[in-house]
Amino acid sequence: MKTLSICLRGLTRAEWIIAAQACFMYNFPLVTLYSTLGGAAIAHGLNETEVTHIITSKDLLQSRLKAILMDVPRLKHIIVVDKKPKSLPDLPRGIMVHNVAAVQELGAKPENIQKKLNKKQPVPSDIAVIMYTSGSTGIPKGVMISHRNIIAGITGMAERIPNLNENDTYIGYLPLAHVLELSAELVCVSHGCRIGYSSPQTLADQSSKIKKGSKGDTSMLRPTLMAAVPEIMDRIYKNVMTKVEEMSSVQKTLFVLAYNYKMEQISKGYNTPLCDRLVFKKVRSLLGGSMRVLLSGGAPLSAATQRFMNICFCCPVGQGYGLTETCGAGTISDLADYSTGRVGAPLVCSEIMLKDWEEGGYFSTDKPNPRGEILMGGPNVTMGYYKNEQKNREDFFVDVNGQRWFCTGDIGEFHPDGCLKIIDRKKDLVKLQAGEYVSLGKVEAVLKNCPLIDNICAYANSEESYVIGFVVPNQKQLTALAEQKGIRGSWEEICNHAEMEKEVLCIITDAAITGKLERFEIPKKIRLSAEPWTPETGLVTDAFKLKRKELKTHYQDDIERMYGGK
User: Fold this and answer.
1) Would the pTM count as exceeding 0.90?
2) Structural domain total, the chain
3) What pLDDT does 136 receive?
4) Same domain assignment for residues 228 and 354
5) Can you give the CATH number for the domain in which 534 is found?
6) Where does the AMP-dependent synthetase/ligase domain start and stop, copy by copy (predicted)?
7) Which of 393, 426, 459 is the last residue of a domain?
8) What is the pLDDT of residues 149-182, one digit of tens each?
């Protein structure tokens, strides 16, 4: 590690990517930490990488960093990116706080310009980023991403997006400390695309921080490109379909007819310009009206949501698969492929092979499609975890040909056309008391399509014979159901009402049967949560993946209640 290491902690904004490019240019290892990590995790990352400089916003400095500065002894300088902060906080131990404008003036001095000319160029094997993953379990791990990894990853991704050029506009709103957003923005920078910055709270006209009657960021920016995690797409899908249910019978019939007609036509490779203009124009306008490519990553996208986005937003949805350990790159589906549930073929930077997993019953010799744990190789496979040799030996290996591979822990199957489908995850597979294997991820994917459910975590252990679930219900839908059943009270009282648990369980059971879940996969008991799961609560990652260990701890009393006190 170089003596100068820089941590970037901030929201998704132009200053973040500009500072990152400067670090790449001067060969300073860049450390990224999610803004939602707890104090202990932040201090761990800063100390492990021996950070000397932090670039952040005044708000994050006050709310997240100030309390842990005494625990980070090597830190010397903090640069605040706000253009004109009214005041800078006093910090302990002589840590110097700088305004970004003052730093720019310092860099413009003649003696420093000469230093810039003499800067050392990075080589491909140098560390560009140490990216701390929030992780679904345990303490965050720092993934070492080299300059070679970044170039390989963005080359592979860009090859799947046709006609990328300076006429495109990308809207950035996911955390830049996440490999999906960083990779997407670097693809745009490498092709001259414009980037506009937003946030999940200001994205659309209906977003929580947009004043009623005002325009959201997508309406103002009119982006042509957007990356999204399934959680965001699922919300859009459910919101629109709820509005469809509120339409008059004539309007609803026309919408359903147009929807089914377009689904049939695009499966044959045809366009439906009349339907797009007359029926789906209003839905398309939710994302600005100019969207030409939507990319989904971070977790599997449900078939219903993918079809909805394809049809109603009148643009292809490229579903991708990649991990921080593979620089976000792995596969992206061809934009002309309208099949659902698949993540496409390997990118030009990636090789994929399937390894037998006997315990789960997945084998590369399976017919008709080979199945097994996904191993990913290629120049996009990162250098490993920082200062964690044991984990490196577990998850990475080099074959006899010198090819570096990463063991993903995900289970996939290859289809005859070379496309990959994610069908399971080793950590999500639980063996029940009677010997049946339950895929918790599969159960959740099926049940999340239920309009009554905003989020769900399935849980099981090998000492029990059935699955249980924790459910974040949709407030509007559950409130309507409560009124229908004559149950009144506050939102918390409704969620804690035993009768409501029974009603929701019945609806979930019907959805599970419709989704063709096996009897032993259907939750037998549930707990309704009045509290939404957000990265700020610590129950999901910044990419909205479930943190099962934290969820288990949070709902331990309910687990004991639902399993009869065992």
Assistant:
1) no
2) 4
3) 47
4) no
5) 3.30.300.30
6) 12-386
7) 426
8) 999 999 999 999 999 999 999 999 998 999 999 9
> By three-state DSSP, how is residue 453 classified?
strand
CA distance 418 to 332: 12
- From residue 489, alpha-carbon distances to 230, 263, 509 in Å are 32, 42, 25
Tokens 């797009």 map to which residue? 276
Query: What pLDDT is stored for residue 1 in this prediction?
Result: 47
The reported pLDDT for the residue numbered 21 is 94
Cβ atoms < 10 Å from Cβ of 210: 17
The answer to whether residues 457 and 558 belong to one domain is yes
Residue 454 maps to a domain: yes
DSSP state of 130: E
510 vs 397: CA distance, rounded Å: 45
Nearest by Cα to 343 from 309, 381, 304, 306: 306
Residues 440-453: tens digit of each pLDDT: 988 998 898 888 99
Residues 230 and 187 in one domain: yes
416 and 436 share one domain: no
Q: What's the DSSP call for residue 519?
A: G
Sequence-distant (6+) residues with CB within 8 A of 65 are 9, 42, 54, 56, 78
Instruction: Give per-residue burial for 423-452: e unless 16+ CB within 10 Å, then b.
Output: bbbeebbbebeeeeebbbbbbbbbbbbbeb
Domain C-terminal end among 426, 458, 482 = 426
Residue tagged 């994205």 (tokens): 203
135 and 29, same domain (yes or no):
yes
Q: Are 422 and 412 in contact (CB under 8 A)?
A: yes
pLDDT at 525: 94
Look at residue 198 and tell me if it is in a domain.
yes
The range of the structural domain enclosing residue 187 comes to 172-321
- CA 120 to the chain's CA centroid: 35
Q: Report the 10 Å Cβ neighbour count for 484.
A: 9
Reference 342, options 330, 351, 331, 326; nearest CA is 331
Report H helices in 246-343: 249-267, 273-278, 281-284, 303-312
| Residue 300, pLDDT score | 77
- Contact by Cβ (8 Å): 356, 363: yes
Q: What is the CATH number of the domain that holds 414?
A: 2.30.38.10
Residues 308, 204 share a domain: yes
Query: For residue 334, is it within any domain?
Result: no
Task: Let me know whether 415 and 438 are in one domain.
Answer: no
Structure tokens given for 74: 């090597």
For 386-412, the DSSP string reads TT-HHHHHHHEEE-TTS-EEEEEEEEE
- The answer on 504 and 374 residing in a single domain is no
**Distance between CA atoms of residues 243 and 209, nearest Å:** 21
Which residues of the chain, if any, have pLDDT below 70?
1-4, 84-90, 92-93, 114, 116-117, 134-138, 565-566
Q: What is the pLDDT of residue 4?
A: 63
Q: d(Cα 294, Cα 327) in Å, to the nearest integer? A: 20
Judge whether 333 lies within some domain.
Answer: no
Closest to 555 (Cα-Cα) out of 518, 525, 511, 535: 525
What pLDDT sits at residue 506?
Answer: 95
Residue indicated by tokens 């309390």:
67
pLDDT of residue 566: 47
